[in-house]
Each structure stands twice: as structure tokens, then as C-alpha cells.
Amino acid sequence: MSQYQPKKSDLFTFGLWTVGNIGRDPFGTSVRDTIAPTRIVTKLGELGAYGVNLHDNDLVPIDATPAERDRIVSDFKKALADSGVVVPMATTNLFYDPAFKDGAFTSSDPKVRAYALQKTMSAMDLGAELGAKVYVFWGGREGVETDASKDARDGIKRYRECLNYLEEYDTAKGYNYKFALEPKPNEPRGDIYLPTVGSAIGFISTLEKPERFGVNPEYAHETMSGLNFVHAVAQALDAGKLFHIDLNGQKPGRYDQDYRFGAEDIKANFFLVKLLEDSGYAGSRHFDAHAYRTEDEEGVWDFARGCMRTYLVLKEKARLFNADPEIQAILKEVHSDADGYAESAAKYTPTSQQRIANADFNREQMGRRGYKYERLDQLTIDLLLGTR
Ligand code: GLT
Ligand code: MN
Ligand code: MN
């Protein structure tokens, strides 16, 4: 159905590292050939994606000479121009090289911290050259296996110092990036600093220029720890901090699976899409996921199509939910304010305080009330299963 054919205006993006994932895991080597970045761009353009995101070393090898770098970047720019695909987000690989085994911005070794800054500034230059507007910091190695290694307060302080440093570099260069911190609880480190969306938002308020920083929540990362991703995204939206989002599939309590968007927990993903669409979130819908290890290149493109299709199907379901008379009638009834307490409860004033303090609430009646959430949830399930 053409309704589910992705368009550029849907703002779907993939990382070079996502469709380019070659299926290595801790127990086995690669199962797919590397796909050239230029081919990824061309193919994503054909599939209807809006953009492609990258780490510095997804495109330019860490040991490339300046001449090699320039040639690679110019070939890549040509592929972008030919396909109409853009680069909305860039980031730094601060986790693969052994130099970062004790972290980058939080390494115990000041020389490593300085090198991480140097590498990030070059990657910011690259991202700016490619037109990126959002710059992501995923601190995969920013953590510890043992707290004997450093005081966690120092880890957090060094993280802050480096982010403040890079914000000043951005200002000096006039890049004007939106910086987005991506939390994750663990993996590859035993414990990663700033493990959740809420902790990242709290940390941002301690930075020199908090307004320049937001979050890049990832479905898999909150879900790994059994947290409710929809609530995490809602908090980010509420705080004006949703600068980017990483969508994928994940079972709770596992390693970071990064499955195709919507592959797990359709209902959670439905409420996520509904939240993004209802909120008017205007940023990229980035799929930070990869094809199952069982797949060849054809399977990779099936995976990419699947991410976008499922998003669009869930978006249509959200529209149906919002237009469903029975669902909306239940919601209206449940949220109704027959006795006019909504305003009194929303803000302390001498009048509202008097009214609430003196009210004769019927506690038994409130306790006996049914909220119709069973019916509401079943209607949602029927809608999602196509039986409504
Ligand atoms: C890595 C990680 C992702 C991050 C990427 C950005 S790299 O694949 O698992 O969650 O978003 O650095
Ligand atoms: Mn992940
Ligand atoms: Mn991610």
C-alpha cells in the first residue's frame, strides 16, 4: 500500500553503522561484507529515507591520511547530492580503539581525555562539512568495571569539563550544533555513567550552557533495564530536551539487541509513535538498529524497509486511535472534571488551597470507581491487531 511508502518528509534516518553492520558479535566474526558508504547512501535514497548519520570512522578510517580523507569525503558528498539524502546527525567513535578502553572524556589518563577532545573536534569539523545539525555523544566507554578505579564524582566532573570544552569549540567555529547525550546503563562498560534519560537530563543542568544540550534516548537502552521508554521520551519532551531519538527493538533484561524497529513490544512502540506524532516532534526518526545476524545484504534492506514501514503503520494506528469514537469517549469520561478540581489542583493559590483543604472528598466513592482501562487497552489491542 502506497500509504506505507516512506517519503523524505517522514524524516527517517539510518546510521552508516546500522545498515553497514557486518554481524560481528562477541562470539563470532562478521557474516556480511562491508557495504561502501556511497552504496548505503544510494540505497537508502531509493528506499525513501531522508538521511544518513555517521561516526567519523564509519566514513574515514582512523588512520587515513589527509589526502585519503578528502577523497573519501568528496566521493561521499557526491553520493549524497545524487541521492538527495542528507546528513542530519554526526558523532564520534570514542569506543572502538583500544586507546579508549578506560573511557574517553572520563578516562583516568588525562592524555586520553585530551586525545578524545582532539578526535571529537575533528569529527565535529567533518559533521559540519557534511551539513549535520545534531551532534550525539554516546558515552559507551564512559564508565567502569570497578569503582576502585576512580571516584564516580570525578568521572562525572571530567565528562562535564569535556562537554563544556566542546561547546566552546562549537561556538568558536560557529557550527551551532544541537548536542544530544545518549544514555545507556551498561555495555560495553560494566556500568556506564549517566545510565538513563532522566540522569542525563539532570546532568545537563550542571553544564555551562545547558540550553545547548539535550538527549538522544534509545528504545533499547531504557528497555534493557526494564524501564518505560515512552515515559523517558515524555520527560525529554516535557523538558524541551528531545533533540534526537534512536528507535529499535529490544527485549527487557538482555544485552543491547538493536533489533528492527517494532520487532518487539508492538504496544510500547505504538504508544511511542503516538507520543512522537501527537507532540509534534520535528526531528529525525533515526533507526539505530541492525539486521539479524542471519541476514545477507538483501536481508539488510528488508530490515531497513521494515523499520520505516512499521513506523508508518503505527503512525496510522495512532491516527485511528485519536479518531476512534469509543476510545475517545472513554478517555473523555475518565478525564472529565465534573467538580472543577483540575484548576484548583494544578496551582497553589490562597483560593485553591482553601478549597482543597476544606473539601469533603468522598474517599469510598473514589475507591469504588472503575476506570475502564481494561476496555480501553483491549480496544487498543484490537486496533493494533487489525480486528477493530
Ligand atoms: C553504537 C551504540 C549506539 C549509539 C551509536 C552512536 S554507536 O552503535 O550502540 O546506541 O547510538 O555513537
Ligand atoms: Mn543500542
Ligand atoms: Mn543509539
Give the secondary structure arrangement, pairings included.
Layout lengths: L11 E4 H4 L17 H11 L3 E5 H4 L6 H18 L5 E3 L18 H21 L3 E5 L4 E2 L7 H22 L4 E5 L8 E2 L4 H8 L8 E3 L3 H6 L4 H10 L7 E2 L18 H14 L5 E3 L9 H27 L1 H10 L7 H5 L3 H9 L4 H6 L4 H13 L3
Parallel strand pairs: 1-2, 1-10, 2-3, 3-4, 4-6, 6-8, 9-10
Antiparallel strand pairs: 5-7
Helix pairs in contact: 2-4, 5-6, 9-10, 10-11
Report on this model:
- It is a single chain.
- This protein is α/β, with parallel strands linked by helices and 388 residues long.
- It has two domains: 2-322, Divalent-metal-dependent TIM barrel enzymes (TIM Barrel, Alpha-Beta Barrel); 325-384, no CATH class.
- It is built from 16 helices and ten strands.
- It has an eight-stranded parallel sheet. A two-stranded antiparallel ribbon has the order 5-7.
- α10 (266-279) links the parallel β9 and β10.
- α2 packs parallel to α4 (66-83) and α10 (266-279) crosses α11 (297-323).
- The protein is globular.
- The two termini are 19 Å apart.
- One manganese (II) ion binds at residues 138, 182, 218, 246, 288.
Number of helices: 16
The rounded Rg comes to 23 Å
This entry's quaternary arrangement is single chain
* CATH level 4 superfamily of the largest domain: Divalent-metal-dependent TIM barrel enzymes
**CATH architecture identity of the largest domain:** Alpha-Beta Barrel
Largest sheet features = 8 strands, parallel
What's the total number of strands?
10
Mean pLDDT: 98
Give the proportion of residues in helices: 40-55%
| CATH C-level label of the largest domain | Alpha Beta
